[in-house]
Structure prediction request, 476 residues.
Amino acid sequence: MIEIKNLCKSFGDNQVLCDITETINEGDKVVVIGPSGGGKSTFLRCINCMEDPTSGSIIFEGEDLADMKVDINRHRQNIGMVFQQFNLFNNKTVLENITLAPVHLKKMTLEEAKAKGMELLARVGLEDKADVYPSTLSGGQKQRAAIVRALAMNPKVMLFDEPTSALDPEMVGEVLEVMKQLADEGMTMVVVTHEMGFAKEVGSRIFFMDGGKITEQGTPDEVFNHPKNERLKEFLSKVIM
Amino acid sequence: MNFAAKFDVFWELFIERGGWKRVLSVGLVNTLLIAVIGLLIGIVLGTLIGAVKVMPKYKLLPRILDKICTVYVGFFRGTPLVVQLLIAYYVLWPLMGISIPPLETSIIVFGLNSAAYVSEIMRGGILSVDPGQMEAGRALGLSYGTTMLKIVIPQAVKNILPTLGNEFIALIKDTSVVSFVAATDLYKTFTEIGNVRYEYFMPYLAMALMYMILVLLISWGIKVMERSLRKSDRN
Prediction:
């Protein structure tokens, strides 16, 4: 579904990603773990070109997203993204947040988008929050609304950039629950997270990233119970499971 | 000084002989026309310039536009408004072989001048909006322009409304120089009343009061607008 070939990314002289080649297949639930500064978020953000790769290619639906001539906006409509800081539009109500893109990009009429939005909001338990502004929501509610906003575009793949890192501990569960549901429905997902429990339970493939490379990958069982890489062993010994 | 006599003269000319009608229907109307339309032009043009200024610059077109805008802002902030009025009316229009009446000239020059200031205000306002808002819009597949227009600029405008109010107040007061190109504004109509008996004491005092009331009304209006725009912060 997404083929990443020789992906490199540098910020000035600082090389953050070195020569990553990976294929993400339909239905995969890829969970990216690793120490801070290892390039996890940059890797995720390169997939939909929120960061332009320095070199290499991202093949999605037969086109190379890293190519500046490709209409990136069209492809991003099929790649949902959820941010650490939620990034709900502050000047729009929750429902307007959800309907804005599908209606503006002519994927749906306003009525269809509203119906779809309400249906999705009901699924994450936020139907009573449709007409309020994001500033009145709790962190967990904001993140659930942000997930709904991405889902309203009917994306083929969802990217999650540390979706629970900015949340109070007691709100982490509600967001992970929504993501689990999504995984169960067969959504292709790439998740950068520090929630090892979630990685173990939901992930179909785990990438361990360190120093700009994916130094180990495998099933949750392989990575968590039989790690080979020294740095991974050290990392796992330090995180609370 | 005989205040009573000065007041009597003013009363006679301003009230009894109906001088107030011209002050309101011509002077005040023109002053407001120049300031309001000028500000509107300034906001539209200034927003465009502000948006160009914050555009990512790795393509050629934004770089060229940016240079043009820098020169534009440099000229309009670097010369006095009166000079710009004179240049437009006595140099530019004749050079272009067109004739634009004083009032329209004033509106155009005030608009162009205001755009330079508004662009800097707007640039600051856009930069004050969390970059995550732009990212979220782009991640959904919206273009840079659409996200700017629908998400970032509305939030920027809310942040800069008090400053924009200041700009409007400054414009209102600056209109008092348009008589340099023979436009008739509040200043001009009050001066005309003074000219009748060469008695300017009361007319100019009344004029000062009128400008002040105007500015106070506008400040109040801005406060009301601000409050209604803040409704998305808490409700």
Notes: Residues 87 and 93 of chain B are 8 Å apart (CA to CA). The interface with chain A takes residues 130, 132-133, 135-143, 146, 150-151, 154-155, 158, 231-235 of chain B (CB under 8 Å). The radius of gyration of chain B is 22 Å. Chain B has a mean pLDDT of 92.
